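Action item from last week, closing it out:
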Amino acid sequence: MKFVVADQSHNAGLRFVTSAIHMPGRIVLSYRREPDYFHGAGIQGIKHQTIAGIQDDEVVGYGCRSLRPMYINGHPSMFGYLSGLRSLPKIRGGYALVAGYRFLHQLHADQETPAYITTIIDENDYAKSVLTSSRFGLPQYMDWGRYITYAVNFNRRRRRKWKRKDISIAQGDDFNLQEIVSFLNRIGSKRQFYPVYDENDFHSERTRDFAAADFYIAVQQDQIVGVVGVWDQTKYKQLRIIAYQGVLHHYRKIINFGLAAGGYRPLPSPGEELKIRYAAFVGIDQDDPDILTELLEAIYHDYQAGDDHFLCIGLHEKDPLNESLKKFSAIRYFSRVYIVSWDDGRQFCRNLEKTRIPYLELAAL
């Protein structure tokens, strides 16, 4: 097996591997990257490299290395992100993984980042045990806690509930983009790993298919106090239901009847794509959960009558904004956050300030 930085000649193979890997569980899911794998690459960073494993002239696995500016200890810095590690069952094993990481280490020699951030699904014990072993030349994985993905269910009719009469909600095109970006950077500089943005990012592939009008803005006394963007990525990233398992498989008709009685839409059929919107660019003044609640209520009110299934938002377990999500019906998925480094990044990792709350942009993972 050999490893290369993938290009358009590997497009079909990358899309095949993406769709061939199923996420097990009560709902078996499969990712898609149609119609072009690389259409979604730009959102992951200003530099993106997909490392493809080639065997018998076919793509049999891949992983991604991206670089993006983030706030590190309060200062803008270029930082790495590792994602999308996938391989076909026929080549899974220690040798392929070690060889792939050796190739990654060669790319790391460009010295454009001291380390990387990544996530591993909490239930993937095999991946956690192997990748965090630091054996056979693998980099060191430093655990940075749990990351929670909330899939807020749009399927139920919900009355709009206002708690804060002093806050109004506006759309992004009612504001100057520079003002929104300035607010996000002010809030983001207090977090760890929050993306650094400028106005040009919102006219580039880094925010493909996102427009200023997709921002929801919380306003208090004519000042921005909260921002959430609603990002539709379905033109280049899809999630398809393959099958239901266990109780959901055997009693789906009965469950759907109960859902309808409770005001929910039925479970999508196997083969159907889940329609997902991402809550992105989350910035809340003073980390006030009530402000995020107001924004999410407004988003829910606008989208609940449509055909979208879920609004997905990700927060670190230490984030006080988790309190907002208790007010919504949501499915929770758990991952572990890791900082990944070789010897040249050890001191950098030791200097990271753990008092700052981590923020990972779910829409760019």
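Closing note: The first strand starts at residue 2 and ends at 5.
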